[in-house]
Amino acid sequence: MLKFLSKLFGSKSERDVKGVQPLVNKIKEEYEKLSALTHDELRGKTLDFKQRISNYLQDIDNEINGLKQEAEATEDMELKTSTYDKIDKLTKDRDKKLEEVLLEILPEAFAVVKETARRFTENKEIEVTASQFDRDIAARKPNVSIEGDKAIWKNTWIAAGSEVTWNMVHYDVQLIGGIVLHQGKIAEMSTGEGKTLVGTLPTYLNALAGQGIHIVTVNDYLARRDSEWNGPIFEFHGMSVDCIDKYQPNSPQRRQAYMSDIVYGTNNEFGFDYLRDNMTNTKESMVQRKLHFAMIDEVDSVLIDDARTPLIISGPIPMGDQHEFYQLKPRIERLVNAQKAYINTVLNQAKKAIADNDTDPEKGGLALFRAYRGLPKNKALIKYLSEGNHRQILQKVENYYMQEQNRHMPKADAELFFVIDEKNNQVELTEKGIELITATGEDPNFFILPDVGTEIAEIEKSDIPVEEKAQKKEELMRDYSIKAERIHSINQLLKAYTLFEIDDQYIVDEGKVKIVDEQTGRIMDGRRYSDGLHQAIEAKENVKVEDATQTYATITLQNYFRMYHKLSGMTGTASTEAGELWEIYKLDVVEIPTNKVIQRDDRQDLIYRTAREKYNAVAQEIQTLTEQGRPVLVGTTSVEISELLSRMLKLRGVKHNVLNAKLHQKEADIVAEAGRPGQVTIATNMAGRGTDIKLTQEVINAGGLAIIGTERHESRRVDRQLRGRAGRQGDPGSSQFFVSLEDPLMRLFASERISNLMVKMGVEDGEVMQHGMLTKSIERAQRKVEENNFGTRKHLLEYDDVMNSQRTVIYTKRKNALFGERLDVDLNNTIYDVVEDVVLEAKEDNSFDEFQIEVIRVFAINPEITQEEFASESATTLVDKLFDQVINYYHRKAVNIAEQTLPVLTNVLAERGGMIENIIVPFTDGIRGIQVATNLQKAVESKGKDVFKSFEKGIVLALIDEAWKEHLREMDDLKQSVQNARYEQKDPIIIYKMEAYNLFKTMLAGMNKDIVSFLFKGEIPGQQQEPQNIQAARPEAPKVKVKETKEELSSPTGVSEEDLNTQEAQVTQPIRKDQAIGRNDECPCGSGLKYKNCHGKQG
């Protein structure tokens, strides 16, 4: 039915493309007009576009500026609040109006980029009238030179260490891709269709707005390469281009890079810069501007695969090096060995029983089911299940034990030491397992959590003094906490030993456990499994177990990118995840047609019974294809399989290269050779995304690149990425997947139906099956896994959204304090909230004494409310009365401090003003002290008012950071502890939301009280009021050493356990050093001055 409807109305892709066709025609019309323009006139179009945008937005900009002046001038808090609300609304309206004018300019702007690309392709040099911007570029880059008042732009420059000559002009389909990206959608484009070139169109158009456009790549090599490759096209039009990954975090150079019109960088660095900006104490230290428009390359990798991975900035915690992994490891080894021995025994029993036709779920079938529940990855079991009808027998037994809500399951698990649920990546200890790991003479409850509810009830019932009851409760909670941590460590070690295998999910390199990305096959440097799992694997592999750390700031990429005004992206494979991209990011996927029809022959899957037969067939096929003179790219899903195939080909005498996580340094050389006749390249998924294999004419005549997939990945995107390496730009090629019933995907999700079919058709060992229906059946299994993964990610999103809403509140408060514009509104509200809390708490207890004490404690004043008024008047009236008294006192205090500091500051300015720009003013509340930096000149000009404003800002920032850091630690603990709710048949996410809300509410109330208390009690110590004791402010001192981590979520809950980022820069291309300019040489900008006196000053 769907096929009939798409034939009738066209597919979604066809309708999308048809919708933008009128714009493509307009671009082509505008393009025809441009060839008559001189180079200078073509460059003048950019200034014209900018002026048109400025004119279109002039009215709304004037209105916003007027409101800002109005807000700054008034002291009326209500008016100020409503004015800022209007400004926020108008800022959003401005973004909408900007999109209107950009759409109007689009055809002309895209035509200008295409014409520029044509001129650079057809001319080795382009001569234009030199602008100051040209002179600045000439001083830094050799592709621009200045001759008098002329600038010469060459069409050859250095990109990623290699010389490139511009030779690309946009096709019509690339214009379609550019329009789709500008509309804030995802453009799905096949390999070799020039995604990098497509990106130049919306980049130029959106950069005209001057708001900064962020182009996001998956690694720093691509960020640097693309910024250097495409940069000159934009720079020719006076647009600044930079790459943040070239500079150190928080450096002036990185801040300057963000000020560029076009900013390239990796997803991690953009996210980490956002976190760092929300940890700084001066607005001058912030690097990012408004998050306006982000365009993401390989968007599915960033917004799907990496989206829920938290970026974490963390620091040391007390006793972070204390853990029990080494102590518990021998017990787990004993447990795993005992289970292996038991499983071997029951599997042999099952084989004998089934051979005698005993498949009873209580007898022979039970033995097979126990083997499966105990060690589903056991190689002997996997082989046995791929033979005959054994898989169907297992399915029937499993159905028997799962009926009536698993009522019979405890009987099946009774003899096992632990149970593995491979589909959900879970391991659970049984009673028998707990007995085995509990040492002789040890407390039998050493690994059993106490029933807190029951035991507290018992304590409450007992006839003992209140102090003793409190002590017993405290001991119980301490016991619970220690045991919960111990059981958690046991479970993670068990996972490490049973579900995670070296050279599959991770490798050990240079004494560190490094995760291998299942999507790309690359090492994910600096990434660690969360929830203590990484530490458990480190203990298992006998490498150093890294210390635990405390979170200072965290965000997921998913929530970071949702903050942009506009988001778009490009990739070769997004349609399989279109539903998720729309549901979470509201991003529509548009399939862009190819420039030339794809010639690749995608063959139906070849299905074998066993892995041994499959790999023999793969080796034979490789040999046949190399004899035909065709290059072969063999895709594997793990390091282990790539090494196995390599050994098989060596035995057959077939020359080949291996590309996997262990050999990533040779990637550039191996990919460069991969398109040669008869060349065999065995690669993990590394050779999928972003690898462009170019073919010689000899290879094209022989039939093109042959792709061989050694198994189906659980994600269709990865298979499509591998297929996409062949058939670029109309080249011939073929792709063929080899599958066995022992493959993980088939074993878990697809093999039952196919196995039944093989039995019915009498397929013998060694024979192969191939049919379109079977390929579709495998793809259905992949879809099942994708849906399952999406469900897990949606569940994670619920946890993530709780954290995100809290982060938004805190970072907004922080930003208001940092910039100071809205700080007085925030503080006014904060003081009112604290007054309300004090009154309501006292009213609830009906205690006037408590009320008096609390007002004196927090505000350092005596309340002007009598006991009679407190008893007779309503809470609202009391709140208003106390607030008026408190706020008047606060304003008087501000005036007093200004008067107190002004004479001293005036004296310092007169005597040392030439040497001192900022000064330190110390404040103390009698317990804690804080040093506040303030600008000396501004403080004197404002008659001392600026000192009090700096004091407010310093206090608010310091106490927000302190409270938030502690809150993050409590949230980490909460996320871990709510998982125990499962044992009580409760939903952890509901408990998490309720508890997180209460924690946040308590944290905000406590933080507000601390801020208000310090503001009211804070004074300048007496001896510091003398001019000779005033100190100059030094640059902000570095804080505690922090670590930046990108975490790998190993469980649906994503519990955080942050660790060190050990990422090192990888050289994947030859590096050529740029020609250095001597300090005494003439500056290349044409000024006639020496370099050291001109552009060399900036270095």
Automatic annotation (TrEMBL):
<dbReference type="GO" id="GO:0017038">
    <property type="term" value="P:protein import"/>
</dbReference>
<dbReference type="GO" id="GO:0005886">
    <property type="term" value="C:plasma membrane"/>
</dbReference>
<dbReference type="Pfam" id="PF02810">
    <property type="entry name" value="SEC-C"/>
</dbReference>
<dbReference type="Pfam" id="PF21090">
    <property type="entry name" value="P-loop_SecA"/>
</dbReference>
<comment type="function">
    <text>Part of the Sec protein translocase complex. Interacts with the SecYEG preprotein conducting channel. Has a central role in coupling the hydrolysis of ATP to the transfer of proteins into and across the cell membrane, serving as an ATP-driven molecular motor driving the stepwise translocation of polypeptide chains across the membrane.</text>
</comment>
<keyword id="KW-0811">Translocation</keyword>
<dbReference type="InterPro" id="IPR000185">
    <property type="entry name" value="SecA"/>
</dbReference>
<dbReference type="InterPro" id="IPR027417">
    <property type="entry name" value="P-loop_NTPase"/>
</dbReference>
<dbReference type="GO" id="GO:0005829">
    <property type="term" value="C:cytosol"/>
</dbReference>
<dbReference type="GO" id="GO:0046872">
    <property type="term" value="F:metal ion binding"/>
</dbReference>
<dbReference type="InterPro" id="IPR004027">
    <property type="entry name" value="SEC_C_motif"/>
</dbReference>
<dbReference type="InterPro" id="IPR011130">
    <property type="entry name" value="SecA_preprotein_X-link_dom"/>
</dbReference>
<keyword id="KW-0963">Cytoplasm</keyword>
<dbReference type="InterPro" id="IPR001650">
    <property type="entry name" value="Helicase_C-like"/>
</dbReference>
<dbReference type="Pfam" id="PF01043">
    <property type="entry name" value="SecA_PP_bind"/>
</dbReference>
<keyword id="KW-0862">Zinc</keyword>
<dbReference type="Pfam" id="PF07516">
    <property type="entry name" value="SecA_SW"/>
</dbReference>
<keyword id="KW-0067">ATP-binding</keyword>
<dbReference type="GO" id="GO:0008564">
    <property type="term" value="F:protein-exporting ATPase activity"/>
</dbReference>
<keyword id="KW-1003">Cell membrane</keyword>
<keyword id="KW-1278">Translocase</keyword>
<dbReference type="InterPro" id="IPR044722">
    <property type="entry name" value="SecA_SF2_C"/>
</dbReference>
<keyword id="KW-0813">Transport</keyword>
<keyword id="KW-0547">Nucleotide-binding</keyword>
<dbReference type="GO" id="GO:0006605">
    <property type="term" value="P:protein targeting"/>
</dbReference>
<feature type="compositionally biased region" description="Basic and acidic residues">
    <location>
        <begin position="1071"/>
        <end position="1082"/>
    </location>
</feature>
<dbReference type="InterPro" id="IPR036266">
    <property type="entry name" value="SecA_Wing/Scaffold_sf"/>
</dbReference>
<keyword id="KW-0472">Membrane</keyword>
<feature type="domain" description="Helicase C-terminal">
    <location>
        <begin position="617"/>
        <end position="786"/>
    </location>
</feature>
<dbReference type="InterPro" id="IPR014001">
    <property type="entry name" value="Helicase_ATP-bd"/>
</dbReference>
<comment type="subunit">
    <text>Monomer and homodimer. Part of the essential Sec protein translocation apparatus which comprises SecA, SecYEG and auxiliary proteins SecDF. Other proteins may also be involved.</text>
</comment>
<feature type="region of interest" description="Disordered">
    <location>
        <begin position="1025"/>
        <end position="1099"/>
    </location>
</feature>
<keyword id="KW-0479">Metal-binding</keyword>
<feature type="domain" description="SecA family profile">
    <location>
        <begin position="2"/>
        <end position="770"/>
    </location>
</feature>
<dbReference type="Pfam" id="PF07517">
    <property type="entry name" value="SecA_DEAD"/>
</dbReference>
<protein>
    <recommendedName>
        <fullName>Protein translocase subunit SecA</fullName>
        <ecNumber>7.4.2.8</ecNumber>
    </recommendedName>
</protein>
<feature type="binding site">
    <location>
        <position position="174"/>
    </location>
    <ligand>
        <name>ATP</name>
    </ligand>
</feature>
<feature type="binding site">
    <location>
        <position position="692"/>
    </location>
    <ligand>
        <name>ATP</name>
    </ligand>
</feature>
<keyword id="KW-0175">Coiled coil</keyword>
<dbReference type="InterPro" id="IPR011116">
    <property type="entry name" value="SecA_Wing/Scaffold"/>
</dbReference>
<keyword id="KW-0653">Protein transport</keyword>
<dbReference type="GO" id="GO:0031522">
    <property type="term" value="C:cell envelope Sec protein transport complex"/>
</dbReference>
